[in-house]
Amino acid sequence: MPAWGRPWPETGLEPAVRPARPRRPNLAELAVLAGYLLGAFLIYRPLWTNLERGYLTNSGQDQRMWEWFFAVTADSVAHLENPLFSDLQNHPDGVNLMANTVMLGLGVPLTPVTLAFGPTVTWAIALTGGLAGTAAAWYWVLSRHLVHSRIGAAIGAAFCGFAPPIISHANAHPNFVALFVLPFLVLCLMKLARGQRPVRNGILLGLLLGWQILLGEEPLLIGATTFLVFGVAYALFRADEVLAMLRPLGIGLAFAAGMSLLLVAFPLWWQFFGPQSYGRLEHGLVGNDAAAFTAFATESAAGNRDVARELSLNRTEENAFFGWPLILLVLVIGIWLWRDAAARAVTIALFLMAWISTGVLLVVDGTVTTLPGPWLTMFQLPLYESVLESRFALGCVPLIGILLALGTDRVLRTWPRLPEWRIPLRVVWFSALLTALLPIAPTELRVHERPRTPEFFTAGTWRDHVGTGRAVVTVPLPDTGDARALHWQVDSGLEFPLAEGYFVGPGTDPERGTYGATRRPSSRLLEEVSDSGEVAEVGAHERVDMLTDLRFWRADVVVLGPHEHETALRETVELLLARPGRTIDGVWFWDVREMT
What gap in Å lies between CA 227 and CA 225, rounded to an integer? Predict the structure, then answer.
């Protein structure tokens, strides 16, 4: 019989002995789930208490982008339009939404919430529910199928939902927070490996795969890589058992592939071959510094902002900050459970995923070594070429959670057998857990108030100057560094398109994606003024470029809202248009209809 089907406690990852009837949640388990929800709410408390103007400080421009995604998705559903494309940004070319992290798997079901309460509420629900839901999903899988101890399952699941790398992404990336489908994908694969109802579980796996693709493809790729690495490691130790699993796995995966393709074949075609699609998205070499694994994240109780800044790409990409006490504890658990083939495979997969995340060459505390990593052979593979390699450390999160659950379960249930040693062992174990986990406990995410949208947009003044299908050009034009215009557009009811924007689309080479629109001469010039605060030198050539760009954007108005370099931007636009601007409802305004 395969190892996955043997009764407890021969191997730590064996399924728990099933009771005669499925275990139903009791009050203790409901309290655990409520604790996850409360913890997620406390992390986002400043956002929930100021939904009108609250803005996650470390989200950069991403909160504006995600709110736009949710608003556009709800608008498309309400008007029975194609949710895979929009020309509200990057007018007139538009945006391939399926080629962006639009999260239709959440945006569509939450459409009623978005329409009734606005996209900021949907944003808050996606983040808060994502943290709590991911922990709850892992608790269900761990407690029902991997360990007997509810305490062990609760600890492991809490880590899976609230680990420092997850909290780092919780500032800005709900697609890396709402990971509640992944545990059930793992469960379906486990059941297929045991030979349990390959057709039914294969169909269920396909349904879940389709949903996860619409929630986030990059987390799915990282999760699949993690499971594949574990599977290969396990096969090295239990080859005969793995061979016995191949037939039910093959049947189940065939049904899963067919079902998932029925659901997402067209969206995937649209993503890779539809309008404004692109082949790959290159980020350069952004592997994790090995020193990051033992450091503490910005949003951890023991976090050091300066250290975290030096060891990561930015505040939302602190992908490897587990803290040295937890690393030591995980090493102890790995050595302790090494005789168990499945636990050994988890430990090996944990090491390999961490190594992949370090990139092409290992970097230690800022010093580049000559030691190559597995990423050297992976970074040009299809799909992998568009992933930040540092994010593969996120694959370590569920593996560590499983080891914590296994270790706790082993302490509470199986070892040592001498009663007089059980209490001292438990004291030592839970002291070690507290030492490892308290320093990385998540802290409340910081929120600041964003400026109010000018009345030019909220009062509908723009309607007197913008025709149907004609664009508004905001100064500076929205991009990855300044996307406030997206918020203005949402507050205006998504009734006019914007020139350029913050999204991912094809660059000058259609096969290579880029963040934001392909910049035109005038947008580059205005961006330079926005950054420097210096009035640009404008001549006949720059005026011709401006006229050409306005006609390309099909613009009716140019609008300058409140800006730290407002004077320099206004004077530059006046030089480009050869006319003074006028103020109206909180903005500087130029009507360019007769020019375009």
Answer: 6
Q: What is the pLDDT of residues 491-517, one digit of tens each?
A: 999 999 999 999 999 998 888 999 999
- Among 218, 220, 223, 191, residue whose Cα is nearest residue 204: 191
- Structure-block tokens of residue 318: 């602190």
**Residue ranges of the alpha helices (H) in 274-323?**
305-310
Taking a C-beta distance cutoff of 8 angstroms, is the pair 550, 466 a contact? no
- And the tokens for 348? 């090996």
How long a stretch of residues is the chain?
A: 596
What's the average model confidence in pLDDT over 280-293?
91
For residue 584, what are the β-bridge partners?
A: 587
Phi, then psi, of 572 in degrees rounded to 5: -65, -45
Distances in Å between the alpha carbon of 414 and those of 15, 332, 433, 559? 15, 17, 18, 69
Residue 65, token pair as written in the block: 């982008």
CA end-to-end span of the chain: 75
Q: What is the DSSP letter of 109?
A: T
What is the helix (H) or strand (E) element at residue 55, kind and residue range?
Answer: strand 54-56
- Whole-angstrom CA distances from 29 to 24, 35, 154, 179, 577 are 9, 10, 9, 20, 66
The pLDDT tens digits of the residues spanning 298-350 come to 999 999 999 999 999 999 999 999 999 999 999 999 999 999 999 999 999 99
**How far is 543 from 577, CA to CA, in rounded Å?**
7
Query: Beta strand 582-584 with 504-506: parallel, antiparallel or unpaired?
Result: unpaired
Please work out, in degrees rounded to the nearest 5, the angle formed at the alpha carbon of residue 40 by the alpha carbons of 326 and 293: 25
Given a cut of 70, whether residue 2 has pLDDT beyond it is no
Judge if pTM exceeds 0.85: yes
